Amino acid sequence: AQSVTQPDIHITVSEGASLELRCNYSYGATPYLFWYVQSPGQGLQLLLKYFSGDTLVQGIKGFEAEFKRSQSSFNLRKPSVHWSDAAEYFCAVTPAGGFKTIFGAGTRLFVKA
Amino acid sequence: GAVVSQHPSRVICKSGTSVKIECRSLDFQATTMFWYRQFPKQSLMLMATSNEGSKATYEQGVEKDKFLINHASLTLSTLTVTSAHPEDSSFYICSAVLGTSNEQYFGPGTRLTVT
After folding, report:
1. HSE on the CB side for B28, CA within 13 Å?
2. Do B34 and A104 lie within an 8 Å CB cutoff?
3. Phi, psi (5° rounding) for residue A62?
4. Which residues of chain B does A51 touch, with a Cβ-Cβ cutoff of 8 Å?
5. pLDDT in tens, A47-101
């Protein structure tokens, strides 16, 4: 069955520290991959996406993600976290050429001073 | 560009009444829109796929007679929660697909509270 796993329900990092949020997927073929961020009571904002090509993708707000086919992973990284990055982060996958998106359970990021 | 709005942003209604939520793509046309439901501290669950000019496709377990979806134009899809009950209280989010891309643009969500 198709699935998206975000193993960490929540993560706490110090401001200025680096961040990595994990995402693994289970799909028959390489899907399209996305990371979204959601602030409380808000909709989702796209951080970055991977369709094909360079496996290291750059996004907004200083985020990047690396697609690793061998590990079926698409982990999100940021070298230096800011307090404003505290939010919920969702990894999502869509079958290549399709529309229907499956979301991971989300990872809540807490940033401490 | 690619902005999606939802109206209302929050609504409180009494049990047994119906509530309509609008989803609009403001600066692009969207043949396909999606409706999601999100319970507190949980992920988004796809409810249905809304296609302009045709009937919506509902996910398994979603009652089509309870959650009526109308996609009457390329910029507007509506979700009507009929005979709402407290268990329908949730955060409803729509998204719209830009052209033939695989990118969804999300609305800000609608918080529904049924008393």
Report:
1. 19
2. no
3. 80, 10
4. 102
5. 999 998 999 999 999 999 999 999 999 999 999 999 999 999 999 998 877 778 8
